[in-house]
Amino acid sequence: MGQAGCKGLYQSLLDYKTEKYVIAKNKKVGLLYRLLQVSILTYLVVWVFLVKKCYQDTDTSLQSSIITKVKGVTFTNTSELGERLWDVVDYVVPPQGENVFFVVTNLVVTPNQRQDTCAESERIPDALCHEDSDCPPGKPVVAGNGVRTGRCLRAGSAQKGTCEIFAWCPVETKSRPVKPLLGEAEDFTVYIKNFIRFPKFNFSKTNVLDTRDRTFLKSCKFGPKNPYCPIFRLGSVVSWTGSNFREMAVQGGVIGIQIEWDCDLDRPPSECNPRYYFNRLDNRFSENSLSSGYNFRFAKYYRDAAGVEFRTLFKAYGIRFDVMVNGKAGKFSIIPTIINVGSGVALMGVGSFFCDLVLIYFIKKSNFYRDKKYEEVRSGHQENGKVTVEPLQNLQAVEA
């Protein structure tokens, strides 16, 4: 590279280059351009800033703790259990209160079971037999109640029977009652206390109303007129899912209680309050569906006067409640504000780009506007060893 070339390169580093603008006096394209600008500005102000609040820094790493307490008593009188009073210790599992708890509403009771030999239930397909060889000793019955002893027990002259097993006898044979045993559980209440914390902003809150009135929790019930009371009637919770408590109590079910926290920390903390959503989670769309309902078994053990252990087996049907918490918090931050304002300004260029396409390709006089927008520059003429170029205006007004 020669000395003149190096000098020219050095001088070009100090040059400032500006764009050449062409003003098109076309009302239709001008109107389109302004509409695009207004639309982009409206989107930026209304959707980005007012609705989505993109000027805020957000925290979705919610830390949460749930405490639940169920209250209510009921009385039953059955042939298996006799007269019995049921309180929280009897019908709530687990009793200590967590984000998942179960309320018993129906029971199949098999009292006085002892470890002995007896016939397996006829409802177990793997227990059916025709002769002793169908009951290999020591082999457990699949989905059954015990271990085969090697004998096939048949009633009278029947050709088909069931295997004898060593198990807790007598085995469970009764079917589910069609009327819920603890139907009065509809009026039981559950107290759901939720502590939450957003660690990024060091902000903590609870769903219990901040009040000095000590009688508030003893008298309030959650509802549309009292949304900040954490005490819920079980029957109301089920009805808010679109289900009937009496029908659900027969075979059980699963209810989801979702607590949603959406906190704008640019406002006072008193405006950060939870929203509750109630849904039935088990399959309730088919009455005969095998996946609907909820049940499990448990037993209570005793010893007789001779020290022999026996038990009462319970097959419990009821409603399982899953309390789920999620949410987010937002607070003003200059960094996301600058980023979103910059994105909005960049979007303004889309309007110019689109109007340029319309101007030079889609209107009748597109060739005229194209010639004005794009200039062809050819080599200049040389006079006395110098190249002369006609000066150009930086700004041109073009009228159709």
Give a verbal description of the structure.
The protein has 400 residues and is α+β, with helices and mostly antiparallel strands. The chain has 3 domains: 17-55 and 333-399, atp-gated p2x4 ion channel (Helix Hairpins); 63-111 and 178-331, atp-gated p2x4 ion channel domain (atp-gated p2x4 ion channel fold, Sandwich), CATH 2.60.490; 121-170, no CATH class. The protein is built from 8 helices and 20 strands. The protein has helices at residues 3-12, 27-51, 88-91, 216-219, 234-240, 245-251, 334-362, 366-373; strands spanning 21-25, 56-59, 63-71, 74-78, 82-86, 92-93, 100-119, 128-129, 146-153, 161-169, 189-198, 203-206, 231-233, 253-264, 274-280, 295-303, 309-332, 381-383, 386-388, 395-399. The strands form 5 sheets. Strands 2, 6, 7, 8, 9, 10, 14, 15, 16 and 17 form a 10-stranded mixed β-sheet that branches. Strands 3, 11, 12 and 13 form a 4-stranded antiparallel β-sheet that branches. Strands 1-20 form a two-stranded parallel ribbon. Strand 16 (295-303) and strand 17 form a beta hairpin. The protein is elongated.
What's the topology here?
Blueprint: H1 3-12, E1 21-25, H2 27-51, E2 56-59, E3 63-71, E4 74-78, E5 82-86, H3 88-91, E6 92-93, E7 100-119, E8 128-129, E9 146-153, E10 161-169, E11 189-198, E12 203-206, H4 216-219, E13 231-233, H5 234-240, H6 245-251, E14 253-264, E15 274-280, E16 295-303, E17 309-332, H7 334-362, H8 366-373, E18 381-383, E19 386-388, E20 395-399
Parallel strand pairs: 1-20, 14-17
Antiparallel strand pairs: 2-17, 3-11, 4-5, 6-7, 7-10, 7-17, 8-10, 9-10, 11-12, 11-13, 14-15, 16-17, 18-19
Helix pairs in contact: 2-7, 7-8
